[in-house]
């Protein structure tokens, strides 16, 4: 069995946004422990007393939100790169898969159909 994490960037219904992005990672269930250990090592740099309290979320880390401003930007950027490189890229491609799609919303007929299409796209990514 694989565990999936999917996240979006953008809003399907916001006309000011030209694109909508879906991305995620699928991890073979027995590998999650080892990836968690790697990510805990990255989080430890920012909270040695409680690395489990650190959320490694790229947008707040980069922007300095949610307490990240207390850490220098180069350290935050290095942590983002290390989390992605060590936690995902260096893993076996048989046990960890990245997937994503960038959708240009103006090519979709209407907002309700776009939600249906996005759902179908996500189902296709997960099932492929």
Radius of gyration: 17 Å
**Strand fraction band?**
15-25%
The unreliable regions are: none
- Number of DSSP strand runs: 3
Helix-residue proportion: 40-55%
Helix count equals 4
Distance between the termini: 14 Å
Class based on secondary structure composition and strand pairing: alpha+beta
Number of domains: 1
Strand order of the largest sheet: 1-2-3
What's the mean pLDDT score? 85
What is the H/E string? Answer: EEHHHEH
Q: What would the principal axes of the Cα set say about the shape?
A: flat
Biggest β-sheet: count, sense, barrel?
Answer: 3 strands, antiparallel
Word description of this protein:
This protein is of the alpha+beta class. It has one domain (2-127). 41% of the residues lie in helices and 21% in strands. The protein has helices spanning 32-44, 58-63, 73-89, 111-127; strands spanning 2-9, 19-28, 96-104. The longest helix has 17 residues, at 73-89. The mean pLDDT is 85.
Task: Offer a few descriptive terms.
alpha+beta; 4 helices
Could you outline the blueprint of secondary structure elements for this entry?
Blueprint lengths: L1 E8 L9 E10 L3 H13 L13 H6 L9 H17 L6 E9 L6 H17 L1
Antiparallel strand pairs: 1-2, 2-3
Helix pairs in contact: 1-3
């Amino acid at each position: 069995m694989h565990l999936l994490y999917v996240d979006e960037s953008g809003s399907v219904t916001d006309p000011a946004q030209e694109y909508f992005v879906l991305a995620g990672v699928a991890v073979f269930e027995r590998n999650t422990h080892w990836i968690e250990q790697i990510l805990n090592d990255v989080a430890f740099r920012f909270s040695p007393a409680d690395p489990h309290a650190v959320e490694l979320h790229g947008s707040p880390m980069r922007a300095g939100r949610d307490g990240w401003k207390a850490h220098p930007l180069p350290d935050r950027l290095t942590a983002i790169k290390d989390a992605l490189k060590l936690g995902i890229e260096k893993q076996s491609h048989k046990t960890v898969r990245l997937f994503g799609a960038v959708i240009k919303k103006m090519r979709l007929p209407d907002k309700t159909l776009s939600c249906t299409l996005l759902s179908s796209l996500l189902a296709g990514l997960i099932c492929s």
